[in-house]
Write a structure and sequence with these properties.
The structure holds 2 protein chains of 2 kinds.
Chain A lengths: L4 H10 L7 E4 L2 H10 L4 E5 L12 E4 L2 H11 L3 E2 L9 E2 L3 E4 L4 E12 L4 E7 L6 H7 L4 E5 L8 H10 L4 H20 L2 E12 L4 E3 L3 E4 L8 H4 L9 H8 L3 E4 L4 E5 L2 H13 L6 E4 L6 H12 L6 E8 L4 H15 L5 E7 L2 H9 L5 E4 L2 H10 L3
Parallel strand pairs in A: 14-16, 16-17, 17-18
Antiparallel strand pairs in A: 1-6, 2-3, 2-6, 4-5, 7-8, 7-10, 8-9, 10-11, 10-12, 13-15
Helix pairs in contact in A: 2-3, 5-6, 9-13, 10-11, 11-12
Chain B lengths: L10 E4 L4 H13 L3 E5 L7 E2 L3 E4 L2 H8 L3 E4 L6 H10 L4 E4 L6 H12 L4 E3 L5 E4 L4 E4 L8 E8 L3 H12 L4 E6 L10 H10 L5 E7 L4 H11 L5 E6 L23 H10 L3 E2 L6 H11 L5
Parallel strand pairs in B: 1-2, 1-5, 2-4, 5-6, 6-7, 10-11, 10-12, 12-13, 13-14
Antiparallel strand pairs in B: 3-4, 8-9, 8-11
Helix pairs in contact in B: 3-4, 5-9, 7-8
Classes of the chains: A alpha+beta, B alpha/beta.
Chain lengths: 385, 297
C-alpha cells in the first residue's frame, strides 16, 4: 500500500525525524491561508501516489499567498501526469503547502528489503534530489549500502560508517546518524517495504531535514496496522483494482481487450503471456485465488465485464483447491446477473471438470471450450472484435 | 530416489484441525503420504480422522512419532511461530504453504533457521511431491503426476500443475516437483534445489519455471552455466506485466531492469538452458530437450 508524502511526514514526525513545517490544503483558499501562515512564501506540492512530480509541474515555489492560491487553482482537480503515473495521470485532491527550505546539500536515504541478503538494507548517497535509478546506472560508486541483520537491527557503528561515507561534518554527522536510526525504526515498526527520503537536506544552519518522504507498506502486514489502514486513499487507485482489492482478488488493469480470469498468480501471468503470444492483448491480470466460492468467482467475472475495454473473456482454471463446478457456477451467475453477451473461452482442467463444463454448456452463455493453453489462445484469436 | 522427500518421510501437519489443513492432510494421506502427527495448540490428545494423533506442540509430536518433516497450514499471523517451533524441535525439513506472511517476519525467520540444520520450503508455495515414492506433501492435485525422471522446480502453484500436466500428457514422468514459493523472501531458492537435482541419480533433466521479480533466475542461470551437469528447460512468465505492479505473488513485481522477464530469459539463454517460448510449450520443449540428449527412448 502506498501513502501520501504528507502522511509519511506525519509518521516521520512521530519518530523525531525533522520535516519542514507544512499544512495540507484542499482548496485555493486553504493554500493561500497556509502560505500566509508560513510567512508569505511556500512550496506547493501535489499529493499523488507517484514520484517524478517535480519534473512534471507538481511542485511549485510561490512568492505570495495570492500566487499560492493561483497555483493551487491550476493543480487541484486535475490529473497530474508524471513519468511514473501512466498516461492518464493521478488525481490531485490534496496539496502539501510547505515552508521554503534553505538547502546547502542534498542527500539520498532509503531502506528496503534486499532479496540478495534476505534482509533490510540501508542505502545512502550524496547524489540527493536525483533519480536514484540513474545514479545507480551511471555512478554506482556514489551509492553506499549497509545490509542490516533483522535480529540485531541497525547498529550505531553502521550508521556511523554510512555518515562517514557521506563525508559530513561532525555536528551534522551526529544529527544524520540519529535520522538514520529513527528511519530504521519507522521501517520496522510500520512493516514498510520501502522508506525513501529524496532529498534529505542539510540546511544552511547545518540541520538535517527530510524534504521529501515516501513510504510503501507491506499489504500482508495490515492485520497488525489498523492505524495505517486509515491512510489508504482509494482515489489514487485504479477503480477496478480498488474494487478487486476489497474482495481480496489480485487484479491489475492492463490495456488490451481480453478479460482474463485465472486461479493462481503464476498461471495468470502465464495466461497473459500466451494471450500476447497469440497476438491478442490482455485487458487485465486477475488471480481469483484458491479457496474461491461461486460468489467470489462471480464478483471477479463482474469486475471483468464492467471494464468497457473488454470485448472477449478468457477463463483458465486449473482445478485443485478451486473446483471447476464452483468456477462454472460463478461464471454463469455473473453473466445472468449482468445480462452480458461478451463471448468467452473457457479452459478448465482438474477437479470436477465434467461438472463445470456441463454447468456452462447448459447455461446458454456464448462459451467456447478449450482443452489446452494453445487451444485457448487460438479460440480467443478467432473471436472477431 | 527423487529429492527431499520419499518413502521414509514422516509428516507432521501444523494446523491439521483447520479447514485447509484438514482438507489437504486428507489429500496427502489418500495419495500415500505417511502423515504421522498433527499439531494444534489446545487440541492435543485428540485424533484426526481416527488415524492421526494430534499434539499440543511440535516437540511432543516429534518425541512420540519421530516425525521428520513439517507441513504448515497456519494463518499468516501465526506462521512464523509455527516455522520456528518446528526448527526448534529439530525438524530437518519444513514446507510452509501459508500465503501472506509479512516480509519483515520472514527476514527474521530466515535468519533464525539459516544456521540451523533445517531447510524451509516456501512460504506461499504448493509444497513438494515425489510421485515414484507416492509421497505428496502439499496442495497439488496428485492425480496429474506420473513417476519418471524429470525434476520440476517452480515459484508458482497452479503454473507448476500446468507444467506437470503438459509433461504427463506427453508421458514424461517426474522424479520430484518442488514449488519454492512466490514470496520475495523464501527459505529455499532455485540454486538450492538445482544442487539437489544434480545429485539425484533418478533425475535426468529439469524443468524450471521462473517469473518476474528479484534475481533468482539469474542466480540459477549462473549456477547452470558454471556447475549444473543436467539439461534444463526454463520458462519465465510475466513478460506482459507492467513495472511496479504486484502480479498476485508478493515477489512478482518489476523493480528494475534485472527483474524483467526479458533480462532473465537472456541470462538463461546465455547459460545454455532450453528456453521455453511460451507457457503452452513446456511439455514439447522438455520433450525436444530429452530427445536431443538421447534421454528419451
Amino acid at each position: 500500500m502506498n501513502i501520501h508524502e504528507f502522511q509519511a511526514k506525519e509518521v516521520f514526525s512521530r519518530y523525531g525525524i525533522p520535516v519542514p513545517r507544512g499544512i495540507v490544503a484542499t482548496t485555493p483558499e486553504e493554500a493561500k491561508a497556509a502560505t500566509a501562515e508560513l510567512g508569505g512564501q511556500s512550496v506547493v506540492k501535489a499529493q499523488i501516489h507517484a514520484g517524478g512530480r517535480g519534473k512534471s509541474g507538481g511542485v511549485k515555489l510561490v512568492r505570495s499567498p495570492e500566487e499560492a492560491s493561483e497555483v493551487a487553482q491550476t493543480m487541484l482537480g486535475t490529473n497530474l501526469v508524471t513519468p511514473q503515473t501512466g498516461p492518464e495521470g493521478a488525481p490531485v485532491e490534496k496539496l502539501l503547502i510547505e515552508e521554503l527550505a534553505d538547502i546547502k546539500q542534498e542527500l539520498y536515504v532509503a531502506l528496503t528489503i534486499d532479496r540478495g541478503h534476505r534482509g533490510p538494507a540501508l542505502l545512502v548517497s550524496t547524489q540527493g534530489g536525483m533519480d536514484i535509478e540513474e545514479v545507480a546506472a551511471n555512478n554506482p560508486e556514489d551509492i553506499h549500502t549497509e545490509p542490516v541483520d533483522p535480529l540485531s537491527g541497525l547498529m550505531p557503528f553502521q550508521t556511523r560508517r554510512l555518515v562517514r561515507k557521506l563525508g559530513l561534518d561532525q555536528a551534522v554527522a551526529s544529527e544524520a546518524a540519529k535520522v538514520l536510526s529513527a528511519l530504521y525504526r519507522v521501517f520496522v515498526e510500520n512493516d514498510c517495504t520501502l522508506v525513501e527520503i529524496n532529498p534529505l537536506i542539510i540546511t544552511g544552519e547545518g540541520h538535517v531535514v527530510a524534504l521529501d518522504a515516501k513510504i510503501n507498506l507491506d499489504d500482508d502486514s495490515m492485520f497488525r496496522h489498523a492505524d495505517l489502514l486509515a491512510y489508504r486513499d482509494v482515489s489514487q487507485e485504479d477503480p477496478l483494482e480498488a474494487q478487486a482489492s476489497d474482495l481480496d482478488i489480485a487484479y491489475v488493469n492492463l490495456d488490451g481487450d481480453v478479460g482474463c480470469l485465472v486461479n493462481g498468480a503464476g498461471l495468470a501471468m502465464a495466461t497473459l503471456d500466451v494471450t500476447n503470444a497469440a497476438g491478442a492483448a490482455p485487458a487485465n491480470f486477475l488471480d481469483v485465488g484458491g479457496g474461491a466460492t461461486p460468489e467470489k468467482v462471480s464478483s471477479a467475472v463482474k469486475i471483468i465485464l464492467s471494464d468497457p475495454k473488454v470485448k472477449r473473456v478468457l477463463i483458465n482454471i486449473f482445478g485443485g483447491i478451486l473446483r471447476c463446478d464452483i468456477a462454472g457456477e460463478g461464471i454463469v451467475m455473473a453473466y445472468k446477473e449482468t445480462g452480458s453477451t461478451v463471448p468467452l473461452v473457457v479452459r478448465m482442467l482438474g477437479t470436477n471438470v465434467a461438472e463445470g463444463k456441463e454447468i456452462l454448456g447448459a447455461s446458454g452463455l456464448p462459451v467456447v471450450f478449450a482443452d489446452t493453453l494453445t487451444d485457448a489462445s487460438n479460440a480467443i484469436k478467432q473471436i472477431k472484435v | 530416489m527423487g529429492v527431499l522427500v520419499d518413502e521414509t518421510t514422516r509428516v507432521l501437519v501444523q494446523g491439521i484441525t483447520g479447514k485447509e489443513g484438514s482438507f489437504h492432510a486428507r489429500g496427502c494421506m489418500a495419495y500415500g503420504t505417511n502423515v504421522v502427527a498433527g499439531v494444534t495448540p489446545g487440541k492435543g490428545g485428540t485424533m484426526f480422522d481416527d488415524k492421526v494423533p494430534v499434539f499440543n506442540s511440535v516437540e511432543e509430536a516429534v518425541a512420540e512419532t519421530q516425525a521428520n518433516m513439517s507441513l504448515i497450514f497456519v494463518p499468516p499471523p501465526f506462521a512464523p511461530d509455527a516455522i520456528l517451533e518446528s526448527a526448534d524441535a529439530g525438524i530437518p525439513l519444513i514446507a510452509c504453504i501459508t500465503e501472506g506472511v509479512p516480509v519483515q517476519d520472514m527476514v527474521k525467520v530466515y535468519r533464525y533457521i539459516e544456521n540451523k540444520p533445517t531447510r524451509l520450503i516456501g512460504p506461499n508455495c504448493p509444497g513438494l511431491i515425489n510421485p515414484g515414492a507416492k509421497c505428496k506433501i502439499g496442495i497439488m492435485p496428485g492425480a496429474i503426476h506420473l513417476p519418471g525422471r524429470v525434476g520440476v522446480l517452480s515459484r508458482s502453484g497452479t503454473l507448476t500443475y500446468e507444467a506437470v500436466g503438459q509433461l504427463t500428457t506427453l508421458n514424461l514422468g517426474q522424479s520430484s516437483c518442488v514449488g519454492i514459493g512466490g514470496d520475495p523472501i523464501i527459505g529455499t531458492n532455485f540454486v538450492d534445489v538445482l544442487r539437489l537435482f544434480d545429485a539425484d541419480p533418478d533425475t535426468d533433466a529439469v524443468v524450471m519455471i521462473g517469473e518476474i521479480g528479484g534475481t533468482m533466475e539469474q542466480d540459477a542461470a549462473a549456477f547452470i552455466k558454471a556447475e549444473f551437469s543436467k539439461p534444463v528447460a526454463a520458462l519465465v512468465v510475466g513478460a506482459s506485466a507492467p513495472p511496479g505492479k504486484r502480479m498476485g505473488h508478493a515477489g512478482a513485481i518489476i523493480t528494475g531492469e534485472s527483474a524483467t522477464a526479458e533480462y532473465k530469459i537472456a541470462a538463461l539463454t546465455d547459460a545454455g538452458a532450453w528456453v521455453i517460448p511460451t507457457p503452452a510449450d513446456i511439455g514439447t520443449t522438455a520433450q525436444e530437450m530429452l530427445r536431443s540428449k538421447s534421454l528419451l527412448t
